[in-house]
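Tutorial handout. Part one gives the primary structure; part two gives the three-dimensional structure as C-alpha cells.
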Amino acid sequence: MNVDELLQPELARLLALGWAELRKDYHGINARLYDSVQAGSRDVEYYLETIGPGPAAVLELGSGTGRAAIPIAEAGHTVYALDNSPDMHEVMRGKVPAPVSDRIVQVEADMVDFSLGMTFDFVILGLNTVFALVEDASRRGCFRSVSRHLKPEGRFILDFMLPSASLMSNKDGSYDLSVYQESAGCGCVVVTYNRYDPGRRLSVLNFLTLEVIEGRFCNAYITPAAEYYPSVDEIRQAIESTGMEVIETLGNYDGRPFSDTAEDGDVIMVARLKLPE
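Part two.
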C-alpha cells in the first residue's frame, strides 16, 4: 500500500518541511516502545495450555520482542521467532534469559513468504498480527507458508479481535495522546491519529512520536500504518484454500465456542493440514 495515501496532510507537511523523520512501523523508535504499548498475557496462557507439556517445536510469526516466545521457551519448548524487523529482534535479544537462549531461534524473514526447511508442531499467528496482512494475497501467502511448515499432526493457531462498534464508527478520525517515561527526563510523547475507512475495511493509523531527552523535545518521527479487519468467514476461507482446515473456532481464551452473532470480542481459530479423503 502506498505510504502517501495513509499520511494525514498535516503530518505529510511536517515531513516536507524536514521537521520530522519517516519511520517504518515496528522499526527504530517504534521497536523500542513496543513493550510499553503491548500488554497482557491471556493469549500466552492459552498457547501454553494448548501446546501442553511437550517439548514441542513452535514457530511464532510476527514474534516482536518476545512477549509470547520467551514464556513458551521457558515452558520447555523450542521456539522459532520470525519477524521482519531487525530492530524488534535486537530488543528481543536483550530480553531473552540466558537459561532459554538455546531454545529460541530468531529468524528475520517476511511472514508472507518464508522457507525454513523444517516443520513444526505448532505455528502461532497471534494477537491481531493478521491485521498487518492488508491484502488478501498477503494473507493467503502467509497461510500457504504455514501449511508448508506444519507437521502432519501439527496445529496452526490464529487469534484476533473483532473490531468494536466505536472503532468502526470513527469515520472522521480522532487523535489520542500517550506519554511513555523511560528514565528520568527521557521518554516519548506519542500522538496517534486513527480513522476507519469502511469502504476498504481499514483502520488508517498515523503515529507522531516526539522523543524527549533530558527534558527537551529532541526528535520527531512519523509512522503511517494500516490494519485490515477480516471477517471470520474470510479468514476461514483463506486458510482452507491453502491446504488446511479449521477444526475449532473459539470466542475467548477460556474455550467458549465462537458465536456467529458476536459483534466484537476475541476470535481464536485452530487449523490443521487437511486429512486425506
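Part three, for discussion. Residues 38-162+230-273 form a domain with the Rossmann fold fold (CATH 3.40.50.150). The chain has two domains: 3-36+165-228, 38-162+230-273.
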